[in-house]
Amino acid sequence: MPVQLELDDIQGTVLRNRPMPYFGAYLLFRIDDAKQARTLLRRLLPYVTSAADWDRPVEDAWINVVLTFEGLRRLGLSETILAEFPVEFRQGMAARKVFLGDVGASDPEHWDMPHGANGFHVGLLVMAASDELRQQKLAVGHEALAGLGGVKLVGRVDVGVPPNLREHFGFADGISRPYIEGQGGAPLPGQGEPAKAGEFVLGYVNELGVVATGPGPEALWRNGTYLAIRKIHQDVAAFRKYLRDNADSPAGQEFVAAKMMGRWRSGCPLALAPEADDPELGRDSRRNNDFAYYGEDPDGRRTPVGSHIRRVNPRDALKESLTDARLHRLLRRGSSYGPMLPEGVLEDDGQDRGIILALVNANPGRQFEFVQSQWINDGDFVSEGSRTDPIAGRRDHSADYAFPARPVRRRLAGLLDFAVTRGGEHVFLPGIGGLRWLAGGGDLQT
Ligand code: HEM
């Protein structure tokens, strides 16, 4: 039986791709008054875009609403229900810092995005197809706040995907994502067997063969999910200088960059073009993700086993190990913040720039937290000892990266903190019925 997803009840960002390029913002609110917060939710509800109305969003803006654990508590959710939420969500991301490798420069004491109990409680994700529309649509958030002194705007981060679709290190982004059963359309070549919907949406069967559920009444959690939000500062100058210092020509720099990522900066995968970039292949969505590792490249001669994309989604590479990669899939909604460092500049200009990831997962422990701690920040699973992800990994465990090359294996030493965490939170993205339930009071206590 094909799975029927309740598309009109699932917030759109879970299943639908953003317009590209796009202009967005995270508006972060603090709740001091439960009743007023519910009024805010009620006012926002008509604008919340579902997966069904994504193609024709109300007033041309895509708006989704998330809540933190403390946000649900401040809305008045009972302690009995709160206690049933997953531990990662209850504790909040900052409290998970040691496990997640947010240490040193990435320690939450340096974060600049509100987080934790005194951080933000409701988040509004606004997306629009132009900067002008973004400004207009942000007004929805501001208008919804009118007269509600008990709910305050405590943060705003502007994000987007620029017209060249590149992130700050210069790589084309937004190429690979799982195809979820029931999402509609057809999978692209390389997306493989559809992922079970319960990996990404509560209320459906997951890869373990059981229905993924949530705490309290079904009205609260049905069609909801969790996002792991990460604000990651990118040290673009350090990355460029590192490439320059470890290659003897511009072409050599591109090669080293590709070996760290697993794709050329054009998006073209090393798996399909191991020797030289093929930008046309990189642009072709029917070819640029159509590869596997197990049979074709078991030792990582093409795509190094420790490269970013092979770590975060090993595809079929771990077939002979005990790890089932399908239990650790993430659906990425990544976007950039901050100005691009002009082409060729090798000195840091002191501007904050980076990536904000909203990683969709119905089980934050075995999905985001597993990938971050075991695959990004450790190398054991690919027999690379304590070596970490050369793009996004922590450096206190290892600053070293190696990959097969001719005539001899190449080792890069002295990797720097190219990516530094500046904020993060596990948030709950209710279904639209769940939002209505929360807005209407549900069995809330106040
Ligand atoms: C500064 C930090 C990061 C940068 C610059 C970055 C950049 C990229 C780029 C350029 C791609 C290839 C494009 C694509 O396949 O769509 C990619 C893929 C991916 N990244 Fe990251 N990323 C970062 C951090 C992370 C983190 C922290 C996670 C998860 C914990 C993550 C998860 C993924 C996943 C799941 C993929 C898709 C891989 C695939 O399916 O082949 N990334 N990333």
From TrEMBL:
<keyword id="KW-0560">Oxidoreductase</keyword>
<dbReference type="InterPro" id="IPR006314">
    <property type="entry name" value="Dyp_peroxidase"/>
</dbReference>
<dbReference type="Pfam" id="PF21105">
    <property type="entry name" value="DyP_N"/>
</dbReference>
<keyword id="KW-0479">Metal-binding</keyword>
<feature type="domain" description="DyP dimeric alpha+beta barrel">
    <location>
        <begin position="9"/>
        <end position="138"/>
    </location>
</feature>
<dbReference type="GO" id="GO:0004601">
    <property type="term" value="F:peroxidase activity"/>
</dbReference>
<dbReference type="GO" id="GO:0046872">
    <property type="term" value="F:metal ion binding"/>
</dbReference>
<dbReference type="GO" id="GO:0005829">
    <property type="term" value="C:cytosol"/>
</dbReference>
<dbReference type="GO" id="GO:0020037">
    <property type="term" value="F:heme binding"/>
</dbReference>
<dbReference type="InterPro" id="IPR011008">
    <property type="entry name" value="Dimeric_a/b-barrel"/>
</dbReference>
<keyword id="KW-0575">Peroxidase</keyword>
<protein>
    <submittedName>
        <fullName>Peroxidase</fullName>
    </submittedName>
</protein>
<keyword id="KW-0408">Iron</keyword>
<dbReference type="InterPro" id="IPR049509">
    <property type="entry name" value="DyP_N"/>
</dbReference>
<feature type="region of interest" description="Disordered">
    <location>
        <begin position="273"/>
        <end position="307"/>
    </location>
</feature>
<feature type="compositionally biased region" description="Basic and acidic residues">
    <location>
        <begin position="280"/>
        <end position="289"/>
    </location>
</feature>
